[in-house]
Design a protein that fits this description.
Blueprint: H1 4-13, H2 15-27, H3 35-49, E1 55-59, E2 65-70, E3 75-80, E4 96-98, E5 101-103, H4 107-127, E6 133-138, H5 149-156, E7 161-164, E8 174-178, E9 180-189, E10 193-194, H6 205-222, E11 226-234, E12 240-241, E13 244-253, H7 258-268, E14 277-286, H8 293-308, E15 315-318, H9 324-329, E16 333-335, E17 342-343, E18 351-353, H10 354-369, H11 371-374
Parallel strand pairs: 3-6, 3-7, 7-16, 8-15
Antiparallel strand pairs: 1-2, 2-6, 4-5, 5-18, 9-13, 9-14, 10-12, 11-13, 17-18
């Protein structure tokens, strides 16, 4: 049986190579909107994983989903290539190692997880032949996988277990449940008029929007969700009563039927101001990840297994959404958070802890070497 210490020695020996590959990944900036950049990273990943996972499928054109596999796997590891950071963010947060931290846009969410998985494959194959397994990389996760969802489901067909390579929660905890996420757009239309000469002829779309947002916020609170106004706009000039306004809100929730209730609410909404129009629509939707019986059995096996190596597993619920939530909904037992721990995801101070990156490589290597009995 392979010893944990042997893998840790390999990781220490290859530390500079690990950091170098992570640098290559981070410095190839891949914002969701820049499809050429995301595709370039997908091409890099394809070359990297080809020696280990030689079977390749790519579905989609502009919005691609990549699947690399070996054999006829029941287990899939899941990640995404895109980041929230616009091209040029490297100038604000350049790739660097400082005080045991590695900085850079997307290093935590989630290029560190992909690099950790690559080296786990490499080290596992140095010990023995790799088992059947697969890797799926999405190119549009940060926007809710709206364009890639159908193709991702096609590529996920046949899997029983899913391990997400998203970053771990504080303390290295795995994510065994997640909140659902809805991006909701609200548009209001009124009537433009001169604010001084004929205000009575106008219908203020911004006023209508403010009242709609206040009512929706209260509804979300009553239904135990979280509410954030992320984008807002409208109007032309201070002396013109605005004829149009809009906002995009982020809503997080736990209950499976929350989205259905919200759709019912949206269908019953009426304007506060006579003559105004209101339209609400989903930009994107990610369901909650709710533990299944199979997932709980899998987690119990993993906890016992890693304990035998002196590595304690812990779990938590994440307020963030991810593709693992869809895999869980499709009946695939899913556990997320196998990527390294860090801080500042989606910010200009994003970083991973080098020690966590190294530990995750060790854990993933042990997991891969023991897939046949841990995920039968």
């Amino acid at each position: 049986m392979v010893q944990r210490e042997d893998i840790e020695a390999l990781v220490r020996e290859k530390r500079e190579e690990i950091i170098s590959l992570l640098k290559d990944f981070v410095e190839l900036e891949s914002p969701t909107e820049d499809r050429d950049a995301v595709h370039a990273l997908g091409d890099m990943a394809a070359e990297l994983f080809r020696p280990f996972l030689p079977q390749k499928k790519v579905l989609g054109d502009e919005y691609r989903v990549y699947r690399f596999s070996k054999g006829r796997p029941k287990v899939v590891f899941l990640g995404h290539l895109d980041t929230v950071h616009p091209r040029g963010t490297l100038s604000k947060n350049p790739f660097r190692e400082e005080d045991g931290r590695i900085y850079g846009p997307g290093v935590l969410d989630m290029k560190g997880g992909i690099v950790a998985f690559y080296f786990a494959l490499k080290f596992a194959r140095a010990v023995e032949e790799l088992p059947s397994l697969a890797l799926i990389l999405n190119s549009e996760e940060e926007k809710g996988s709206t364009h890639t969802l159908d193709n991702m489901r096609r590529l996920a067909n046949g899997f029983k277990y899913c391990f997400g390579l998203e970053p771990s929660s504080p303390g290295g905890k795995l994510k065994t449940s997640r909140k659902g996420v809805i991006s909701l757009k609200i548009e209001t239309r009124g009537r433009k008029a001169h604010a001084g000469l004929a205000p009575e002829k106008g219908i203020n779309a911004i006023d209508e929007l403010i009242e709609q947002l206040a009512q929706l916020k209260e509804w979300v609170k009553v239904n135990e969700g979280n509410f954030n106004i992320g984008v807002i706009g409208g109007g032309e000039k201070p002396n013109v009563i605005p004829g149009e306004a809009f906002a995009v809100v982020d809503i997080r929730f736990e209950e499976e039927d929350f989205a259905e209730k919200l759709r019912k609410y949206m269908g019953e909404v009426s304007p506060f101001k006579s003559g105004a129009l209101v339209r609400m629509s989903f930009n994107s939707f990610v369901p909650p990840l709710q533990p299944s019986i199979t997932q709980r059995k899998l987690y119990a096996r993993l906890k016992e297994f890693f304990s035998s190596y002196g590595m304690e597993l812990d779990e938590t619920s994440s307020p963030g959404g991810a593709d693992t939530s869809w895999f869980s909904r499709w009946g695939i037992a899913s556990i997320d958070g196998w990527g390294p721990e860090g801080e500042g995801a989606h910010s200009d101070d994003e970083f991973v802890y080098l020690s966590s990156l190294e530990k995750r490589i060790v854990m993933l290597t042990l997991l891969i070497l023991n897939l046949k009995r841990l995920a039968p």
